[in-house]
Amino acid sequence: MSRLPVTRGRARLAFQANVVVIFVFFYVPIVLLVLFSFSASRNAGEWGGFTFAWYEEFAGDRATKDALQASLKVAAVATAVSVVLGTMSALALERFRFHGRRVFDALMYLPLIVPDVTMAIMLLLFFSEATELLGISRGFGTIALAHIAFSISTVSVVVRARLGGSDDRLEEAARDLYASRWQAFRHVTLPIMMPGIIGGGLLAFTISLDDVVVTQLVTGPGWTTLPVHVFGLIRRGVTPLINAVSVVMLLGSMLLVVLALLVSRLSGQDSKYIH
């Protein structure tokens, strides 16, 4: 019996050490990225003194700013469309039964399973045929459609998980209280789905901003997103400018996460009155 406290103590220490290792693995690279973005040395892994020169170069680099604007435009359009279509598909799969439902459900998971290279080649072939048949030029439209294609599944999975954990009897209760189908959706179903919609939209926006493989193959002249631009810079050598660009994107992602959490909390406060 005396060995039991010793065993528990060792297990607790092992668990704590595992947590520390995980946090170090995840966050030390981020700390180093932020630190060396202020290095005066042109070598990305060498500290040469504190400076804001790389952020000033980023602010004055026209090509980088154009690439950032292109990424934000594509991500905004892809997120808006994928949130609507992904939410509709999640609602259809979770609340309705129809012929071909299992096939549609399986197809929704394909973009999450298929490798990026394979999907990029498929979209490249599709857009190549479309440009020849319809006379469509590759550029903003093809990039946005490609991002919508793999973002719909992401939004659908997140929203469907939210719906799957909710009680559909709330909608039935609203209908029993003479609410129309639209009123039941507006005041009951939509507040329940809202955290999933926000989370799925945030994830879709992030994935769209970070995509390189698909975008690089379906893009056209004059449309270079920020990840593709950074990938081109890396070919010429890694400099703290790339670190500075990455830090800016990191701060933007953190801001989106904070906004999403605030909106989700407000949505949760509004939806509690339904219960």
Primary descriptors:
single chain; 275 residues; mainly alpha; MetI-like fold; disordered C terminus
Helical percent range?
A: over 70%
Number of helices: 11
Q: Could you tell me the mean pLDDT?
A: 80
Biggest β-sheet description: none
- Calculate the terminal CA-CA distance, rounded to whole Å: 49 Å
Pick out the low-confidence regions: 269-275
**CATH second-level architecture:** Orthogonal Bundle
Structural class: mainly alpha
Number of strands: 0
Protein model, in words:
The protein has 275 residues and is mostly helical. It contains eleven helices and no strands. The chain has helices at residues 3-36, 53-60, 62-95, 101-113, 116-134, 140-164, 169-176, 181-210, 213-218, 226-235, 240-271. The model is unreliable at 269-275 (pLDDT under 50).
Write the layout of secondary structure elements.
Blueprint: H1 3-36, H2 53-60, H3 62-95, H4 101-113, H5 116-134, H6 140-164, H7 169-176, H8 181-210, H9 213-218, H10 226-235, H11 240-271
Helix pairs in contact: 2-11, 3-6, 3-8, 3-10, 4-6, 6-8, 7-8, 8-11
Short description:
By secondary structure, the protein is mainly alpha-helical. It has helices at 3-36, 53-60, 62-95, 101-113, 116-134, 140-164, 169-176, 181-210, 213-218, 226-235, 240-271.
